[in-house]
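WARN retry 2 of 3 for item q-0093 after timeout on previous attempt; input resubmitted unchanged.
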Amino acid sequence: MRLDNAALIFPVIRKRRWVNVFRVSATLTEAVEPELLQQAVADLAPRFPSMYVRLKTGLFWHYLEGVPTPPTVREDYAYPLTLMQEKELHSCCLRVMYFQDRIAVEFFHSLTDGTGGMVYLKTLAARYLTLKHGVEIPAEEGVLDWRAEPSAEELEDSFVRHTNGVVLNDREPDALRLRGSYEPDFLYLTTGVCPTETLREAAHRCGVTVTVFLAAVMEESILRYQAERCPERKKRKPVKVTVPVNLRRLYGSKTLRNFVLTLNTGVDTRMGDYTLEEICKRIAAQLAAEATPQQMAGRIAANVTPQEIPVIRMTPLFLKILVMRIVYAQRGECKGCINMSNLGQLRLPAAMAPFVRRMEFIIGPQRSYPNNCSVATFGGETYINMIRNIRESELERRFFSRLVELGVPVLIESNAKSKMQNAK
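OK item q-0093 returned
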């Protein structure tokens, strides 16, 4: 199977110490039985052929190949999003894990995005609960019928389908780069748990959505961080938070593969200072102007059109890799400071909901972003996961402290203690 258009870059830019992997998880009301979870993983193999694959290298492109047997369930260990080595990618590009009452799935990003990953997790958890309790769970709220044949639309590369052929020029200035003391053997994860209704009220007071509000608070935190370290305004860099846009909502796609594009939203404080309300308005206006079917089709075309040029198609992979790395360095992560990826409100079928008490979404640090942030809401709580591969915790401290100042109580959870215990 060919990689979808968004997936092409991930095998190219991965490094020995970094692979773009994300995690979705469901915490149940009772301990997980590994044997039943393994059976559920095996049962879903025919339903999700685009997930049960390994990464292969061809003459012209990387591609995905079906695995002969489903991946083996393993006990969770160490910390989330441990490095997915090349040997593992050549075996299977997803992991299924358990720890006490939690089921977690980690995906190499060439397989799917957060939305597709959550569909797989919900369907896996539903099948597991059926095996354990005999409960019949209908195919709704993102749970698929595991016995049904996968549809062509679920497996399509929706980028190719929805390009308009008109390339949008989206050049923009480079953004501030966050730095810190690199931690080679650990990813620090800090989770802020907020009451969803209180968070919504704070966002509505600013006249924006929760995603815009959180992006604005993050941006304000980075702006203050930069101002303290760079008092001379003209030497400051633009501060931009990268917001992924789920294109399924714009085009009605049902693909389970990648179908997300990102927008870099933010301000340039060389022009002057901004209040939180002004940052909110600016981000909301940028998203409203750019996250439209017409504008996004132009962005899609900018990625799809070069891929279809005959000369490029016939260029050997090793040359493509060199060119794609150069283009990514000039137009990729350098345009933003951090991701703010929000899966939104997660819902489950009524028959399944009593067995699940928590659901989360965690993205890893990027190739050059030491910090990243992902958000999901379930059961009246919003889980904000901030992850980093540097020792300094200043950004999450500023961000969560600012939320508290704005009237949003935050319960903090962290794996830093386990890091210190392991060191001892």
